[in-house]
Each structure stands twice: as C-alpha cells, then as structure tokens.
Recover the amino acids of this structure.
C-alpha cells in the first residue's frame, strides 16, 4: 500500500481536489445529454474515478465522494451539508458542473 | 446555553445551526477506562462528568473554531482538533416549464416491462437490422461505437433496455417484417419522421371480393371491435379499437391497433393500450403516434363537467388546423374539446328533447362540411338533429321511425354535382336501415332486407348512391340505390358468421373495413361497383324523386316538411 508520513500535518487542498474532480466529470459526461438509462452509470463512474484520482494524489486522507446528477426540468433543488472534523487537516470541496440538460454536483 | 441530554452511542451530534454562528453539542469524551477528562473552551463552560456514569452530558458551545477536544492521550492517539466545517449549500432554482397541461398528462409510468418482450426476439434479429439500415440508426450506432471496449454484461443489459435502442428496434422489427412479407418499399415511416410519398398498390377486383383479414392472436382475440377508422393522411392505415378481452383479465382493458393495408404483414403496426375499455366510461384518451409510447398521452378526467356515462361517439370536425373533438355519451351530453386542452371541455351541452328528456346517444354524424349541425341516434330509436351553436343550440328536431335503438348513423358525404348533404341513413336493432332527409321528420325509405340487428351503416365517400351495412348474422351488404332499392346490390356473408359490429369505407372508396365481435377486421375490395360515374349524381337525384313520390303515395302519412 502507499506510504504516507504519519507524523506530518497535511491539510486538505481543496483546489487541487476540485480540479481533479472537474476533469473526471468532464471525461464522463462532458458533451452528453441527460439520459435516464445511463445516469446511474454516470454517477457511479464519476464517484469511482474521482475517488481513484484523489487517492492517487497520495495524501493521507480518507475521502468521501458524493455525486448528484439532476435533469434540468424546471424543478428546484436545495441541499446543504456540513461536517465535524479536524479543521486543521480536513476540508471539503464542492464542484458544480452543468450543461444544457443537466446539473452535476460532486 | 446549556442543554443536557443523555445519549447512548453517538459521540457527536450536530443538532441545529443558523447562519451567523454554529451551535452544536459537545460531549465530554468518555474514555474506555471511564476516566473523566475535562475539556477547555474559550467561551461557554462545560462540565466534567464523573467517569462512572454511562451517560454523557452535552452542552452548547458557541465558538466553533475554538472548541478543542483532547483525546485520551493514554491511548497514544495524536491530538486532533475537531471543528465543524462550513455549511455547503447547493441551490438550483426551479423554472416554469409547461408542455401538456399537467392535469391531463398521463403519468409516464415506466413501460420497460412491456418492451422487454421485444428483447426475446432481439438476439437473432439484432444483427441484421443493424447492417440493413445504417443511415437511420447512425446516431444510435455512434453512441455505442464511442466505447469500442468490450461491453460488460451489465452494460449490455442497460443498452438493451435503453429507450433509444428499443425505439430503433421496434422500428426495425416492423421494417424487417415488411421486408420478409413482400417486396416493396419497406422504409416508409408512418410516424412522420421521414415523409416520403408512396404510391399505393391497391388491387382491383370484382364486385365485392375479399381482400384480407386482420387479426392478431395476441391482441385482438376475443375482443369486440368497437370502432374503426381510416387514417386521413395515409390511406392505407386504419385503426381499430377493441373492447375488453374477457379471457385475459390482466391485459389492458381497451386497445387500439393500427393496421397497414399496403403490406401483407400480419401484425399490427402499432398497438396502443388503454386502461378502461376504449369507447366507454366517459373518458377520452388521446394517443400520440409520434411519441412511441403505448399508453395514452393524454386523458380527460372523469368529471361532472365532462362525461359520466360511456362515450359512444367521437368525431373530429373542422379543418386540419382549427379542429375540435366532439364527443357524445349516453347520458345525453355533448362535449366539444380542443385537442390541446383536454382538462375540460370547451363547451358542453345537455341534449334534451322538449326540455325534459335527455337523449341517450348511440351514434352521431356530421353532414359533410358542416361543423355546427349534426344528427344523433338514440337508444329509444329516435333520431334527433341538433346544433352546437346559434339560437337553436341543442336538440332541434326529432325523427321518428325506428322501433329499436339506433346503432349507426351516417351522413352523406360524397361530393359531386348535386348536393345530397341533407341525406343520412340510420341502422337499428329493428332489422332495418332507413334513409332520411334532414328536411323531413319521417324516413324517406326503409330498407328491410335484413334478418337480424343491423349494427352499422356507412355511406361511400365517393359514390353518391352507395352505402354499406353490416348485421348480426355476419352479412355485409352493399346497396346501390341507383340500381335497386329493394335488395342490396352486392352481399357477402363473412365466414364464421359472427356478428359484425362496424363498417367503414376507406377514404378512396375502394375498400370497406368490417369489424366483428371476435376481434377480426375484414377488408373487402369493392371494385367496379364503387367507382362513381358522373351521371350517378343526377341518377341519384332522380332516384330520390322516385322514392319521395312512392313514399307520398304509400303509408308514410303525416310527414311534416321541416323548416330548413
């Protein structure tokens, strides 16, 4: 398994993570329209790929990845979340992405 | 603020928050060895708990960043500083988006299960259609070929069930079936996506020759044909609606099948399902052939404003652009609907005669070109003329003559040199067919050749003196009034001798479709008999004069000339 330095305090780099996640989204659903039959595949792949990319960064972190894809149909969606953690080292990042037919939030 | 609450297991609980600052509960940590540890905090105070108690105390702390918890250092853990993160909010604002009126839009229940039956045949036929029609399925193919890697089993399943594939597959199945059945242009697409005009290759014939029968074992067995109609745009298409299938209660109650005359296929082009028997229980359902769904696209609600009794008759009047749907039901109500808005009728009218008796309508017909006045037949055997608008809206006149319920009514609609649009014919359970004119309240003539209930009657759309009738013994009669008014000019008994429910002419006037009580639709070619000659119109005018003259001498006395 990968080695990480357990003695250091590394803090979560939200920007780097968000870049990496955005890339994953783009690869998987970039240019596609909302398709109800494929949307399950997409959310699963986005989560899987983002997670593997994040793990590849080699940081000593646990990750939680959540992906929501919503069709643009005129409905509203409102969510909120918060976490209780070690504020020195832990952090979160949210990536919003949209195209003509759907929203994607990771 | 203080809040004491014992909790069982969870160490942390975020109970509430507001926008300015966070409140949360901070438990005092319990080490396994039950030692009490005091926590420090800048603001707010805390209590330490005696380690012997099992419960914990929780307290509010107003300053998130400053709260610190010290883990039990005896266990060798690092010092963690835990705090709450900022709350992440994601908002998508709703937008107004209206397509169909929402109340009439039928729920788009997943109809995957219905289309799964197509998949059984998919394995063999899948290979050939894909190579046969590259241009049509270019898009579907492209999306599949974008992933040239091996499709896993799961992905293959997903693709097979995907809507695009099923749409493509249904179309290609129908095309391949046509190709298998005969030579000809198989690429015609009736759903209107590609509009190529095709010549029909109808076959001529002698007087009344059997062309073919439409019968689908799966769908139309044991169902009574309740209505037939020919498509005005594609003259080789006709739709037949069927009543409920007594043998199979799980199948949908009412279905309508679209049959294609042109090719020798034996399966229907499209099938539509409906929950209640088609033509009954007061609802009107609208299928859109373009949206490849088998369930109705719109359905009117059961409401007192609309029909509460079985809807027996539906007619579309008007031109292609400005048209209305008129429906009449057995509770005497006539409603007019706009196809865009089926949530409530545009107008509705109670059909009462003499201001008291509602008319139980069994049939309705509009004269050619008239969208306001119409005639209806009723269960009591009377025929009424009515108008939709105007000072005399409602029932106008009553035509007496039949002794039994009127089953079918048809207005003259052949266009020619002489205008006969005041004529209409009715059929009834009293074994007769009667010819009427709007101007007289007694029949002009009564055709008494039948020996059973006459179920339906229909004027030819092209020949002025020709009409067809069907009766309960399986007989289809063609009457040419220029030839003979006593007996039908041509008659055939359909094999099987089951009662025939409906008869409709094709728009070209060369074929007749007959529906029977076993769910079969028979198509007969009419041949030379159906072709009108220019002198047929004047001949018919003379025939009418003769009929009237005979009637005047005969027993029909007391006939009243009605104001036009």
């Amino acid at each position: 398994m990968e080695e990480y330095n357990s003695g250091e305090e590394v803090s979560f780099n939200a920007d780097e993570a968000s870049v990496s996640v955005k890339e994953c989204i783009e690869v998987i659903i970039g240019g596609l329209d909302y398709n109800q039959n494929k949307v399950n595949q997409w959310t699963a792949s986005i989560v899987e790929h983002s997670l593997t990319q994040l793990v590849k960064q080699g940081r000593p972190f646990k990750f939680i990845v959540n992906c929501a894809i919503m069709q643009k149909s005129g409905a509203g969606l409102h969510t909120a979340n918060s976490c209780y953690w070690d504020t020195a080292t832990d952090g979160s990042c949210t990536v919003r992405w949209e195209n003509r037919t759907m929203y994607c939030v990771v | 603020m203080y809040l004491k609450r014992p909790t069982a297991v969870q160490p942390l609980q975020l109970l509430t928050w507001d926008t300015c600052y966070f409140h949360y509960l901070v438990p005092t940590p319990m080490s396994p060895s039950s030692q009490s540890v005091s926590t420090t905090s800048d603001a707010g105070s805390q209590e330490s708990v005696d380690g012997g108690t099992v419960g914990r105390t929780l307290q509010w702390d107003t300053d998130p960043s400053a709260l610190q918890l010290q883990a039990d250092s005896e266990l060798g853990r690092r010092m963690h500083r835990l705090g709450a993160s900022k709350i992440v909010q994601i908002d998508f604002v709703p937008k107004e988006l209206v397509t169909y009126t929402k109340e009439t839009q039928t729920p788009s229940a997943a109809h995957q299960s219905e289309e799964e039956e197509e998949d059984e045949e998919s394995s063999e036929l899948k290979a050939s259609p894909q190579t046969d029609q590259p241009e049509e399925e270019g898009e579907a193919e492209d999306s599949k070929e974008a992933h040239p890697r091996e499709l896993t089993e799961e992905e293959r399943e997903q693709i097979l069930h995907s809507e695009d594939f099923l749409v493509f597959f249904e179309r290609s199945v129908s095309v391949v079936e046509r190709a298998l059945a005969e030579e000809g242009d198989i690429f015609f697409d009736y759903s209107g996506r590609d509009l190529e005009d095709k010549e029909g290759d109808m076959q001529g014939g002698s007087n009344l020759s059997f062309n073919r029968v439409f019968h689908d074992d799966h769908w139309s067995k044991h169902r009574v044909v309740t209505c037939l109609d020919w498509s005005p745009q594609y003259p080789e298409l006709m739709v037949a609606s069927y009543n409920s299938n007594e043998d199979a209660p799980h199948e949908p109650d009412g279905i309508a099948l679209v049959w294609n005359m042109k090719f020798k296929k034996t399966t229907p082009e499209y099938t539509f399902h409906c929950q209640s028997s088609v033509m009954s229980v007061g609802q009107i359902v609208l299928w859109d052939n373009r949206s490849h769904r088998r369930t109705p696209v719109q359905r009117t609600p059961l409401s007192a404003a609309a029909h509460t009794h079985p809807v027996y008759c539906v007619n579309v009047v008007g031109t292609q652009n400005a048209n209305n749907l008129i429906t009449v039901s057995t509770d005497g109500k006539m409603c007019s609907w706009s196809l865009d808005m089926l949530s409530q009728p545009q107008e509705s009218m109670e059909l009462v005669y003499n201001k008291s008796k509602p008319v139980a309508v069994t049939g309705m017909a509009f004269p050619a070109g008239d969208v306001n006045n119409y005639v209806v037949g009723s269960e009591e055997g009377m025929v009424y003329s009515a108008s939709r608008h105007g000072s005399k809206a409602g029932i106008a006149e009553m035509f007496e003559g039949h002794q039994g319920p009127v089953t079918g009514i048809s207005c003259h609609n052949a266009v020619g040199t002489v205008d006969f649009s005041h004529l209409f014919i009715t059929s009834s359970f009293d074994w007769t067919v009667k010819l009427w004119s709007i101007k007289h309240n007694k029949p002009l003539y009564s055709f008494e050749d039948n020996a059973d209930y006459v179920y339906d009657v229909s004027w030819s759309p092209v020949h002025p003196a020709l009409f067809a009738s069907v009766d309960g013994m399986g007989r289809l009669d063609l009457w040419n009034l220029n030839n003979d008014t006593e007996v039908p000019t041509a008659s055939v008994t359909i094999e099987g001798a089951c009662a025939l429910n409906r008869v409709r002419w094709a728009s070209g006037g060369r074929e007749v479709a007959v529906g029977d009580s076993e769910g079969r639709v028979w198509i007969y070619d009419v041949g030379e008999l159906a072709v009108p000659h220019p002198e047929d119109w004047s001949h018919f005018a003379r025939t009418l004069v003769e009929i009237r003259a005979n009637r005047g001498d005969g027993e029909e006395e007391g006939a009243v000339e009605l104001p036009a």
